[in-house]
Design a protein that fits this description.
This protein has two domains: 69 residues; 42 residues. The protein is 44% helix and 28% strand. It has three helices and six strands, in the order βββααβββα. A six-stranded antiparallel β-barrel has the order 1-2-3-6-5-4. A hairpin with a 7-residue loop joins strand 4 and strand 5.
């Protein structure tokens, strides 16, 4: 693939990298929080290269290299499912906090035992 193959552009938006009314995403965009930045600072263009007619992935040129972006399938999630998901997330967060407290208390107890046994 060469830069001369570029003939198209996509736009980074809050919903993904939009190309021909389809959204795409890639690891780089997620790691660098492109979509959050697009919300706060507005979208921007990226160069796109297509190797085939397969629309399940596109290639963008970023930081002197080609990055594979995969199509994102947006799903409409019912409110009741979102609520259950939120409740489960909160339960898991609480469980994690309790595990951390338990581990911290266990370490303190172990340290105290070793101190008094000397």
């Amino acid at each position: 693939m060469t830069i001369s193959e570029f003939t198209r552009f996509a736009v980074v938006t809050e919903h993904g990298i939009m190309y021909q009314a389809t959204h795409y995403s890639c690891t780089q965009a997620i790691q660098e929080q492109w979509f959050s930045k697009a919300v706060h600072h507005g979208g921007w263009s990226v160069q796109v290269c297509l190797r085939t007619m397969d629309k399940s992935r596109i290639y963008i040129f970023y930081n002197e290299e080609f990055i594979v972006c995969n199509r994102v399938q947006h799903q409409i999630i019912p409110e009741d499912k979102k609520y259950l998901y939120f409740l489960e997330l909160e339960r898991l967060k609480k469980l994690k906090r309790n595990q951390r407290k338990y581990c911290a208390n266990h370490r303190r107890l172990k340290k105290l035992k070793s101190h008094y046994l000397l």
